[in-house]
Each structure stands twice: as C-alpha cells, then as structure tokens.
Amino acid sequence: MKWTTWSATEAIGTGTYKVDGCNPSCAAGPVYPVATVVTFSQPVKVCSSSGTRWVWTKASFRYPDGLPKALRGSNSPTNPWVFSAVVAAAKQSCTR
C-alpha cells in the first residue's frame, strides 16, 4: 500500500488487493490481483493497561480499473468492511 492520506479521521491508500475468486471453492479458486483504493475510517478509542490507542472500524474499497468479470455482481467482494465487534469492545474498554 502507498498511503496518500493519514489523518485522525481517515487513511487512504492505493495498492493491489488479491481477491480470491472462490470458484469452485475458496481453497481452489483463482486469486485475482485488483488495483484498489482503500479508505479506513470511523476510528474508535481503545483503552488498555498498556495505554490508549485508536483503531479503524470501517474499510471501504474502490476499484479504479473495475473488477474482473468473475468478481462482479453476486461474486463481488464485500464492501465496505465494518468491524462492529471492535466498536462494541472499544466502547466497553474505556468505561471500566
């Protein structure tokens, strides 16, 4: 990844996302290298005995060159990724 933005609210980078085609299965499916712009956002504060840190809870993907035909429609990768369990755990970590 090459990070073009890294701030308190978002991180944006470009790189190659190696997407498993999962056909006929994820173990045997081909892997497609796809040019991708990823945006991390929605940071939450996590508290622990080793200190406080911030973690991203959402990852959104954009494919500037499009997706290969095998990865379109119902076969497209999940977008965005939302880490709800991290949000819940983070909220609890700072209220103890």
Describe, in plain words, how this protein is organized in 3D:
This protein has 96 residues and is mainly β. It has one domain (2-93). 10% of the residues lie in helices and 46% in strands. The protein contains 1 helix and 7 strands; from the N terminus they run E-E-E-E-E-E-E-H. The chain has one helix spanning 84-93, and strands spanning 2-6, 10-20, 31-41, 44-48, 51-55, 58-62, 81-82. The strands form 2 sheets. Strands 1-2-3-6-7 form a 5-stranded antiparallel sheet, with no helix packed on it. Strand 1 (2-6) and strand 2 (10-20) form a beta hairpin. The longest helix is centred in the C-terminal third of the chain and has 10 residues, at 84-93. It is elongated and about 45 Å long. The model has no long low-confidence stretch (mean pLDDT 92).
Please give a quick description of this structure:
The strands form 2 sheets. The chain has a 5-stranded antiparallel β-sheet, with no helix packed on it. Strands 4-5 form a two-stranded antiparallel sheet. It starts with a strand and ends with a helix.
